[in-house]
Amino acid sequence: MKLSIDKKTLAQSVGKVSRLRDMKMVARAHLSALKSCGWLMRAELRNHVEYGGDNWAPLHPLTAAFKRTKSGWKKREVPPSPLYWLGRFARYVAAPDASHVEIGFGKSNKGRAGTMDRSLNDLVRKHEKGRTVPVTAAIRRYWAQTKRFFLRNSTTVLKIPARPSIGPVFRKMRAKIPAHFQKKFTAAMHRYLTGGSKS
After folding, report:
1. CA 67, CA 85: separation in Å to the nearest integer?
2. Burial of 104 (C-beta count, 10 Å sphere; 0-12/13-18/19+)
3. How many Cα atoms are found within 13 Å in the side-chain-facing hemisphere of 148?
């Protein structure tokens, strides 16, 4: 999900400081405000995923009962919300030229900029609308070996219900972003002009 600030919102923000000669300060404030929007969206995305989205269908009892570890499959102590584990990977990455900020799922090390992870975002896209997985001989063996569960011969597909995250979060936050951007832009300009610090 890419978020960019439209020209009208940017003009309304920059208009208040249009007489400044140092446009580098404006660009710096623009990037700072954009990153704040990214952080806000990332926080909302993580919250959405960890609290089960908009009434997401629960995990299948067998999926909820087991988790995969490096040493194999183990029983869970507490069944989590669907895709709960994904929440901690919510990330935002602002373009250096402040043209947009990307919100999605990725990985990062402490003190380094986050990066998007293709496999995680592919997984999210598959869950946006749900999917149907044909049951093959390999899948039957997989379930039997890892979950100690034998699928019935009559089971020919596994249905994964839709658990959308990107779409609902974008629609929820879209109207709030312009005002948030303007507030953070103005605050950043004030800091740069007065030599203050973030409160």
Report:
1. 11
2. buried
3. 6
Q: What is the DSSP string of 67-85?
A: EEETTEEEE-SSPPPTTGG
| 3-class state of residue 4 by DSSP | coil
Report if pTM > 0.90.
no
Residue 182: both structure tokens together: 């303007």
Judged against a pLDDT cut of 80, whether residue 126 lies above it is answered with yes
Rounded Cα gap, residues 128 and 183, in angstroms: 32
Classify residue 146: in a domain, yes or no. Answer: no
pLDDT at position 172, please? 93
The reported pLDDT for the residue numbered 52 is 86
**Domain coverage including residue 45:** 2-129+163-194
Most trustworthy range by pLDDT among 43-47, 146-150, 153-157, 160-164:
43-47
Query: 107 and 117 in contact (C-beta within 8 Å)?
Result: yes
Whether the per-residue pLDDT at 116 is higher than 80: the answer is yes
For residue 1, what pLDDT is reported? 79
Tokens standing for residue 120: 């995680």
Q: Which region holds residue 111: left if phi is over 0, alpha if psi is between -120 and 50, else beta?
A: left
Q: Is residue 88 part of a domain?
A: yes
Domain count within the chain: 1
Cβ contacts of residue 53 below 8 Å, gap of 6+? Answer: 82, 83, 163, 164, 165, 168
Q: Is residue 41 part of a domain?
A: yes
Q: Is residue 112 part of a domain?
A: yes
